[in-house]
Design a protein that fits this description.
The protein has one domain: 4-Layer Sandwich (Nitrilase/N-carbamoyl-D-aminoacid amidohydrolase). Helices cover 24% and strands 26% of the residues. It has six helices and 14 strands. The strands form three sheets. A six-stranded mixed beta sheet has the order 5-4-3-2-1-14. A six-stranded mixed beta sheet has the order 6-7-8-9-12-13, covered by helices on one side. It starts with a strand and ends in a 23-residue tail after the last helix. The mean pLDDT is 96.
Length: 305
Amino acid sequence: MKSTSKIAAAQLTPVFLNKEKTVEKACKAISEAAKNGAELIVFPEAFISGYPDWVWLIPNSKGAELNALYVELVENAVSVPDDTTDILCKAAKEAGISVVMGMHERNSETSGNSLFNSLLFINSQGQITGKHRKLIPTGGERLIWSQGDGSTFRAYDTSAGKIAGLICWENYMPLARNAIYEKGTQILAAPTWDKSPNWLQSMQHIAREGGLFVVSVCTALRMDDIPDEFDFKNRYPEGREWINTGNSCIVDPKGQIIAGPLQSEEGILYADIDLRTITEAKRMFDAVGHYSRPDVFNFSINSNQ
């Protein structure tokens, strides 16, 4: 396998709660990234079709308001597979690029009316290689998303390297990170809603801890990006321009930010990576290699299979 490639982080704004138009925008970004030489592109958390930021604004006693929003969310969610994934797979194949897509995923194996916060992995041949469902939604998110399980801890080969994903604060779970490291992950997709300086520091730490490249990618969302028909928009402080400024970045295995952070604008970040940097980083510290001490610690994943 070649050691060098270019990877991309798509700090873009979804067309809020509009699956068709958001997917159309995603396909354009997939094509653009490939034309710029990227072999992998990672999209934000819940990009299809927008992060439900109202969970931090609307009290659970407002059932009618929450019900209406939830119906919109489910109607604009994705089943795996469905027509939406077919479109994304076609775009990936035509562009010859691997894609990691954040999305609301229906529980199509049963009722089709509950949601997961998921990542979809598509290879450069346009095939779905897998998905990852967020293990623990954070705070108010638990009123929206179900919990994932151990069956989606996987890493997938791409021309850029072996990739896996952890979503937002799932990256703070030490055992979840260890599970990813043990898969031989070389690139960690870390889609998020967190734009804070503390988050960026954590991304640098995780890159060093795991000896891997980290793609932290977040939605850039303005007040004007939410249609006025959604009343929760009025719950934000008056005069606010940005709901989320993004702060996406790409970090190398030594903890150095090599692209971004990109703040208060849409854009696609690119970074040239060399997988040999991973070997350099792991000479002194390899969390699942010579530093793992399996004679002292036991670790396993309940894969629920």
